[in-house]
Every structure is written in structure tokens, then in C-alpha cells.
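Bumping with the actual sequence this time:
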Amino acid sequence: MIQFGTNPIAWANDDDQTIGADIPTERILREAGEEIGFDGIENGHRWPEDPEKLRALLAAHGLKFISGWYSTHLLTRSVEDEINAARRHIAKLKHNGCKVMIVCETSNAIHGDATCPVNDRPRLTPDEMKAFGKRLETFATYLAGEGLTLVYHHHMGTIVESPGEIDALMAATGPKVHLLFDAGHCYFGGGDPEAVLKRHVGRVRHFHAKNVRPDVMARVRNEGLSFLQGVKAGVFTVPGDQEGAVDFAPLMKILAANAYSGWIVIEAEQDPMVRNPLLYQTLGLATLKRLAAEAGLTHAA
């Protein structure tokens, strides 16, 4: 059984909080819940930190708390220190019945730096990736004991961006580390989403349905733009947008063939002043529901 969710960055960006700053929180929740009809929503800087206040706020709009991004610093601190730093976030997830914890290593990431070209991202040597994977697996083992599955978010501007790096991380971890597969970041990172998903679908426990405008992506690469400059230029969009390059039909079929169960989330940040979140998120959800139904993925009631 699957559920469909969204992320508030379609309305109010987390990395650059000036994007969508004028949009009231109430509008985000009303549009995502009552007007569009998502089952749940991921974390964002607008939500209260208190676990019960968060649950009540979202529930008032018919939404569940899915999970949310957590920045690890395992390249620069011990696993024990990471666990201590994550305790409040873990408590929030558990209180809200979340099943996965979304993590990404950000100790040296550049995606939040508006002045740094995304091409200049950090990279690990093979030995460094193995050492990082060992620490990540230890952290994931602790989370499993708390009832949470670690899902790693490969992401532009970080140490796990390219398809080769996704492969290397999966080879350096297991069995507790799983994958958040993001179709848009996979494509932007130089991968074929269908091929990468086929290779790793057995370890995918969370799915981000992000689309990419290839002409804008080419500009980001060729002109040395930052990740945030690319976002403002419109590099990302939703499933169903004819300007997008990602074909979600085969991805839904791969998930169905491998009995995927969990969330399918539209995490597609755009400038809401340029592209209306209500219209784009409505298009994205309608597209995913149609393709999922055609593929045989059953939507949880």
C-alpha cells in the first residue's frame, strides 16, 4: 500500500527562506490538505518543533507527518555525537508514527551556498566512501533499534550525487541503510532514473517524485550556477509537466513489480511567484495517481 505526500518547499523554501516567505503557513496546509488532497507532508522550517503541536497542526488539515530531512555530520563527528544530536528529531518522528528517517551528509555540502557552483561539490575517494558507509551503517543500526529505517537522500551538491556514488554508498552499507530514491536528483546528477532505480529498488524505502527541466539543468552546468540559482531559474518541476524530462511511468512500474510499500512524495521546489504551487502540485498528484494505478500500485485508504 502506498500513500501520496508533498513537501512544503513547493511553497516556502528551506535552503533559501526568502523564497515563498510571503506565503502564509495556513495557505500551505490548506492547499496541500483540503484543496489538493495529499495524504501527508514532509518537514519544513514553518512547522513547530514540538512533536504534539506538529501532529495537531497537520491533522487539522487532514495531513500526516511523513518524515523530514536530517543533516548528518558523520564525516566530522562520531556516531555517538550524531546520535546525541539527533535525539530531538528522532523523538519527533516517533511521536508522529513515522517509519523512515531521511538523512543526508551535509558537513561539507554546498547546495545551500548561493555563491558556490553546484559543479564544485565535494567528492570522496573510494576509501573515504567506505569509511563513511561504515559510520552511516552504525548510525542506521541505532535508528533501527528506535523503530526507524534510515533512508539516505542522494542530493545535488553533496558527496552522494552521481549514479556511481549512489552505487558506491549502497555497496559500502547494508543491511540497515536504505535509499531515498529521488528521480530528479538522479537525473540532475547524471543518471538514468529508470536504470538506477532498477539496480537499487530492493533497498528503496522512500520515493521523491521530482522532475527536471533539462534546458535549465544545462544552464546550471554550463554557466557554473549554484544549486539555489538553479532552483530560482526553475530547474525542478513536478510529474506531468511537459517541460520535465523524467518519465515516471516506468518508475511506477518498477516500484509495483517490486511490491513497493510506503510514501511517494512530490518534493519539487520552484519559485512560487513564478509557478503557482497549487496548480503544479495538483498536476503532480493527479499524474502520479494515474500512473501508479496503471502500474498496479494500490493507494492506501
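The C-alpha cells above came from a reply further down the thread. The longest helix spans residues 126-145.
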